[in-house]
């Protein structure tokens, strides 16, 4: 009953899923932080850009973005992100799509974190003569990140689950392998249980560990 | 709070702002110019590719039927998931462990699994164990996947909604001698439903966005896959088709989001109610306290 499993590289597929999630997480954390900084900053044009970006990207389905990176960027505009093979190109495009999408949610999570920092903190920082970027870098963001661990964890978990969308452009991750296995083998329930278990293993510990970390680092007020 | 990160600006700060605005404008313009040049080089800006959208044909043949399917799947999923979510949300608040624990397990399990996995499972399930015709199967699979995932998210919203009510409500219900189920039915649920409305409407956005998965992976003929067929028919106008579809999705979801925040503001203003509101993002935060996976898909 379990013989057929050795014909498939299930661990390899999940490893691709993890790679997609980690690379996109790092990328969207950086881009999302920049967006959040723009949205709370004093330059009106940057504020407008940040708000427009978040409102537009949040309302487009991730599937549309991912499919566009492949059909639009790769096939129509021949942008391959420096990859010479089509599967590496698809992987990188998927990461790009995930970063574009997830950073909007990272920005919102960070903004909710910034809102928990008492006004007095920023006022005191300005009173001792810090500039806006110093206020943000040295006083507000360090506290905001600590209270944003909870919302950011939710974003990371959603991102882990969203990596399955990369199956739509043929990145060899878990959901694509599951589809292939279900089509080839008559073991629907067993195969589904394996993949469901795999995702539970990825998402539940993330939630538990980071939930604990979030409680540890939260600023006591 | 966010606007209080900087003071009213003096002459030096104003000059610096102008400088930053100019730098940002130049960067933005450079990116837009690059996009324009790339599009032009690949011939994607030819009027031939965009012209079909000024006629009624693509709208009536591809976009409108696709949009109808998107809305149909989303509406079906919401209508089935709401009562299911309510049942599981209330079950998680039960004082009997044999109801509470299994309900919690089911909810946490389905929240931890990607919707796409549930949809792929649904498609194979309907193919192997039922005689649903192969034309209908994608719709059934998409709705099944959406219901399983969103019912568990809605369960968390319902739970957060009931928990957001002041404790005095259930104490008063007990004091006048109501039974447990009367308390839930007559006192807590009616107030919780109003408090939850904004969160439920924002969940609708998630559902609408996730229907696109069915188009990309399960051959469900919704808006996104109609864009694919369309760009094939009109001579590979991929960029044009995707732009139109993205704009439709943005308009639809932006309307839903605005409606949700309007509801939320209105409910927060209302004096008659208990003032408890579960906002758009609250459920995920409340739901993950000490438990597992949340989702802002």
TrEMBL record, chain A:
Subcellular location: Cell membrane
Start and end residues of each ABC transmembrane type-1 domain: 14-210
Pfam families tied to this protein: BPD_transp_1 (PF00528)
Any one biological process term the GO annotation gives: amino acid transport
Primary location: membrane
Membrane protein topology class: Multi-pass membrane protein
InterPro entries the UniProt entry points to: AA_ABC_transptr_permease_3TM, ArtM/GltK/GlnP/TcyL/YhdX-like, MetI-like, MetI-like_sf
GO molecular function, one term: transmembrane transporter activity
Keyword Transport attributed: yes
Cellular component GO terms, alphabetical: ATP-binding cassette (ABC) transporter complex
SUPFAM superfamilies with a match to the protein in the record: MetI-like
Keyword tags: Amino-acid transport, Cell membrane, Membrane, Transmembrane, Transmembrane helix, Transport
Transmembrane segments: 12-35, 56-77, 89-107, 188-213
Family stated for the protein in its record: Belongs to the binding-protein-dependent transport system permease family. HisMQ subfamily.
Name this polypeptide is given: Putative Glutamate transport system permease protein GluC
TrEMBL record, chain B:
The keyword Glycosyltransferase appears for this protein: no
Residue span, ABC transmembrane type-1 domain: 67-260
GO MF annotation, one: transmembrane transporter activity
Keywords, alphabetical: Cell membrane, Membrane, Transmembrane, Transmembrane helix, Transport
Source taxon at top rank: Bacteria
GO cellular component terms listed in the entry, alphabetical order: ATP-binding cassette (ABC) transporter complex
Record InterPro entries: AA_ABC_transptr_permease_3TM, ArtM/GltK/GlnP/TcyL/YhdX-like, MetI-like, MetI-like_sf
GO BP, sorted A to Z: amino acid transport
Topological type in the membrane: Multi-pass membrane protein
Annotated transmembrane regions: 18-37, 73-91, 103-127, 139-165, 186-208, 239-263
Cell compartments where the protein resides: Cell membrane
Family: Belongs to the binding-protein-dependent transport system permease family.
PANTHER family: AMINO ACID ABC TRANSPORTER PERMEASE, MEMBRANE COMPONENT OF AMINO ACID ABC TRANSPORTER
Protein name, as recorded: Putative Glutamate transport system permease protein GluD
Species of provenance: Streptomyces afghaniensis 772
